[in-house]
Structures are given as structure tokens and as C-alpha cells.
Amino acid sequence: MTEIFAGSFTQQEPIPDDGIAAALAVMQTGRLHRYNTAPGEVSQAALLEIAFAAQVGAEYCLAVASGGYAMTTALRACGVGHGDRVLTNAFTLAPVPGAIAAVGGVPVFVGVTQELVIDLDDLAAKLDQAGVLLLSHMRGHICDMDRLMALCDAAGVTVIEDCAHTMGAAWNGVPSGRWGRFGCYSTQTYKHINSGEGGLLVSDDAEGMARAIMLSGSYMLFDQHRAAPPPETFARIKYETPNISGRMDNLRAAILRPQLRDLATQAARWNDRYRALETGLAATPGLRLITRPDKEQFVASSFQFLLLDWPADAVAAVLGRCAARGVALKWFGGAEPTGFTSRYDSWRYAPSAPMPASDRVLAGIIDMRLPLTFSLDDCAMIARIIRAEVSAVWQGQAAAQ
Q1: How many domains does the chain divide into?
Q2: CA within 20 to 30 Å of 127's CA: 87, 154, 169, 378, which one?
Q3: Which secondary-structure segment (H or E) carries 377?
Q4: Last-in-domain residue among 261, 276, 295
């Protein structure tokens, strides 16, 4: 009998009970704004910042409205302005070049390897074109950060990390987001902790974080931040840094704090599901799995594989056949952007030239969400379905040649 998967690829687990209770407590006070506190009270947003800074080992943390806002704030705090060129990944999602465009910058795209990380050789060749790299750990894949930082430090290039897909992950024992000047995280629904929308920004740079706090719309209430630089750091910059409001509210912070405490447990559950898929798809003809280096401690809330050098109609056939059996796959190689699967040449506000080696990789990337509502048996079934449909199309291509 042909198996049909009946699960939802967009259904997340419910907010934990202690998160719901914390949210209700905030609503009962009516004090949702982070600076609206009772005498002696520390806001939920400030408590979240303290906890996240401690968890990743950062001096400072700022809770904001979204991951995209975290990136634009980090870029502004680094002095990026109109016409400035910023290096970034060719393989990423639209909010990353969008953040560069939002501050008036111009993206300079760097290629992608078959391991779905930034091409460090291409980066080395382009380091003289910009003073900042907005590095996207796209879909949770982390490059050799020791080599990347050595290259950027030698060239005087400031690194900002987009860690939307790598909260809880690390390279060589150093948490994602702790390599560059700033680390930017997302708490949007499909990320590792879920407040619908939201973001976090970390840094050890006192002046940079003071600017970020002022940019977020702290007015002159920066002394209410507990994971922040000392008040004297704000003395000069408070008069010259604009308010571009993007604060996180206490309701979202309250929902997030219990989830943050459970992040390590949830990360292990995601990786169990990733390994189940990986095992089920091993040695599938025509399908290339992504190598995960020993130094990469990843958190796999999604799954990718390559149909490298497949014709577009054959890839489309695989997607259609899997969809008919309930498995929702996304393709980064389509000529038109669909949902979140756009490419560097889709973003026509950003100039780009063809990148043949990267275009070959992008044309083969297949992506799948991996929610924790899936059981290990679900993942094994999904792998069987993908394996069967990839094999059928692969064999059909071989017979036609």
C-alpha cells in the first residue's frame, strides 16, 4: 500500500504551560510595554535579556521586535549607511539582504558550497569590497568559523552573524553568534523558540550595544536594561543616535523565557529527527546529503538535500510526487521566488552578477521544515516517501537517456 503522510509541516508544538501562565500574569497586570514596571519590578524583557546573555556567554543582550530588526540595528550600530557595501551570503532568505537595503547599504553576494555554507575562497576574493560581513548561518549550516574569522580579522572586516536558524548551535564549542561583533537571533514561529515574532541581539561591544539600545527606542530609560553597558557608555551617544522603535514587549518575553530554559532538550529532539531522516535517505540514487563537520554542533529545525545537476522538470516532478503523498518540499532553484524560497538574483533591488558555481548548487537545493510535532516514526515515513519518489524519477531519467 502506498504510504501517505498526514502531518502538517507548519504546525508547531504549543507554548509550554509555564509560558502560558507567565503570559497571563503579564496580561493581568496590563504592563505589556517593557518600560512600564511597578516599583522594584524587573520587566520580563529585561529578565529574558539577562538569561539569554548568560546562556550564550555574552556581555550584553537586547530583545527586539524581530530577527530582521536585530540585523538592521546591528548594521546601523556598526556605522553602515547609504551606499556602503556589505558582504553577505548568496544562499540566504530575503530578510538578510533586506536588512542591508533597509539601512541604505548595497549587498555584495558571496557564493555557496555544496555543504550549503558560505564559500570561504570566494569570500577571501571579495573581502576588499566591503568593511562588514553580514554572515547568514542559513538553514542552520555553520561554516569553518575559525578560518572565516581569521580571514575577516586580517582584512579588517567586521562580522555580524545572522543566527536565525542556529540558536543553541555552536562551532568548535563557541556558540553561534559569539564570533562576530554582533549576533542576531529570531524568535519567529518557525525558529527554535517561538513568540510569533521577535528577536535578540548580543554583543561584547559596549558602545555598539549602547547604540543598539538607543536605536531600539529606549528613550532615556536605558538604566532599566540589566544586560546592558553601564550608564556612562550612553553619555555621548544618547544625543546622536536616532530612535527607530523596535522593542520586544513583556508578553512575548514572558512566553520565551520558559522555552529558553528548555532549548537544549528541544535541540536534542530536533537532531534526533534530523538523524532519522538522514538515515532513511542514505545512499538514495541521485540524492546528495549534506556533510556535517565534527566541529559543527548544529540544531536541525529543518532538513536539506541536493538533487545536484538534475533538470528542472525532474526536480519539479519529485516535488509534485512527494506533495501528492503529503510531503511538502521547497526548492531554491526555481526561476521565480515562491514563499520564502527566493535567490540572490530574485532581489532586484540588489545588483548581482551570475555566479555559475553557486547557481549550480542553488538549482539543486531541496528544503523541508522539521517541526517537533513530527515523531521519529513520522520522519522515517517521510524519508521512505522521498526515497521512493526520488528513485522513481531518477530511474525514469535513466531509462529516457
Answers
A1: 2
A2: 169
A3: helix 376-400
A4: 261
